[in-house]
Amino acid sequence: MNASDSDEELYNERSALVPSENPEVPSYRPDPDHSPTEDSDSKTTGFSRRTRPGGGSEREAEPEEEEEEELPLKYGAKHVIMLFIPVTLCMVVVVATIKSVGFYSEKTTQQLIYTPFTEDTPDVGRRLLNSVLNTVIMISVIVVMTILLVVLYKYRCYKFIHGWLILSSLMLLFWFSFMYLGEVFKTYNVAMDYVTVAVLIWNFGAVGMVCIHWKGPLALQQAYLIFISALMALVFIKYLPPWSAWVILAAISVYDLVAVLSPKGPLRMLVETAQERNEPIFPALIYSSAMMWTVTMANPADDQPSETDEEAELSGRRAEPQRRQPGPILEDELEEERGVKLGLGDFIFYSVLVGKAAATGGDWNTTLACFVAILIGLCLTLLLLAIFKKALPALPISITFGLIFYFSTDFLVQPFMDNLVNHQFYI
Amino acid sequence: MTAAVFFGCTFIAFGPAISLFLFTIAREPLRVIFLIAGAFFWLVSLLLASLVWFISVQISNKESTSQQKGLLIFGVVLSVLLQETFRFAYYKLLKKANEGLLALSQEETMPISIQQLAYVSGLGFGFMSGAFSVVNILADSVGPGTVGIHGDSQHYFLSSAFMTMAIILLHMFWGVIFFDGCEKQRWFVVAAVVVSHLVVSCLTFQNPQYVSSLVPTYIIMLSMGIWAFYTAGGSLRNLKLCLTCKDKDFLLANHRPR
Hints:
heterodimer, A: 427 residues, mainly alpha, B: mainly alpha, 9 helices
């Protein structure tokens, strides 16, 4: 079985992280008496101003200063955690499925049409060559799809894009969820009738479409986005040949870097076009941790091709830097709720890496190591985001760390730990 | 080898650590980030130690078991030393980062104190160390099997769980003591931490005679715990006030009535 084409279109864009609004770094104030009489507005972007007493009551001012000074740092740290939690959840879903449902880690001879070269040859050189060729084909498909999306966006073919996204999310929410449910039932030997399954899948899919493409509670929308990212990652883990998957991961990080940062990169052009037009880029294709989205974006987003979809992930992995600033005044008041946005493609590829680590070999150490590496990469990326304050690719650092730790843990640490555990030595 | 063994051993090994995490770290984003960074540093140290061990095994005689065992012991000692080196490196990095943040923000207080960082980084090291030691064993304990059917000890899972708990708590105590020693430039304190870590690891060479390895380890853990308690500013008076709910600072900080 070949997975449908619309799924493949999914991974187009690279994701980048969107700072909804970066807390400004407090500027240096050469104030000799250490008691600022004016408010430190440079520190608190949008937070209510606190009046300070004059020079005499420094003592009282200090707790407030302390609090305000801590705010930019805590604010940034809070965003990191707001992304750690969904990324962790997605990885947990993928790893739990891989370890319990055998279907997704079984060897399969079917391959996607995008990776036509088989890896069944005994010759190592030939296998490597085949994986590289598979990667080239896959990446070219992704590049073409991304450029197509950018062109469509530029020429304002919103209806077409919208239809494309709806089709893809329909496929994910109904067909793939049905398959997943079927495999889970098979694993646990649960007897189930078609009527019940039809009702379950219908409800699940319909609510998902509404939440993702229209309006819904933020938590529910986030949950659906995480679930469909996990589903997509599971499809990749099953149908990509082993070596090709690793080469594709590496190649996609490089592509992400190029597409987001280079001046002619398609994703950069997408972001700039969206910024010029003052529109959100497919808001639902991107995981947003902020509540403001549903409040302020309800109106302009109605005719926008926004919603998460595989394409979103593929396409929507871009960060949207300062789109908010010229937005409505409502934003200022809801500043506390602002969050960071991460494209769904990031979720997918992180989960693919961790899922493959869990699938190959029965070893949990490798999975844990990749998990920690990806989180640290995400942390570093967010740090860079706070420093540079523009759209950044979220894949390169995390995937690089993940790959390094996967291979080194699998080949170096695993034998060492196995020997230690055999003798029950502790380090 | 049932769910009972799995859950029992998991909670023995990770119970204290997870409760510490939930009650003191989970609500503060900064602490969570530094915990994960600490885990990452431990992982890198393990990677380097494994690399050296792997190279030494490749160039050695693979047939001779005594040589392999000797190399393993060498690997353990090297790993302990590297872990402590990376703890020191993490300390230096945190100091630099804190200084940078302080300079940037013009304030006199840091959002997270060095003592909190010591505790959090120690716990991060502990989590990762414990996880790497015991997770595969726990995964195996869910499935069917008989422990020690070929004459090995039957208490394998239980002793592993207890040892892991000790190691996690020890890492946390060592973190607190180590950072304090570095802060106050008391290098004998740092040396004591390194030596006690080596002692604990070397005690495990006596496994499966669990009495001679677990009991001294727990004694060391208790003494390190008391040392860390006093290092972090605790005292009998503080303890009494806290236990009888009369500690005003603690109650105020947690918004509870006196």
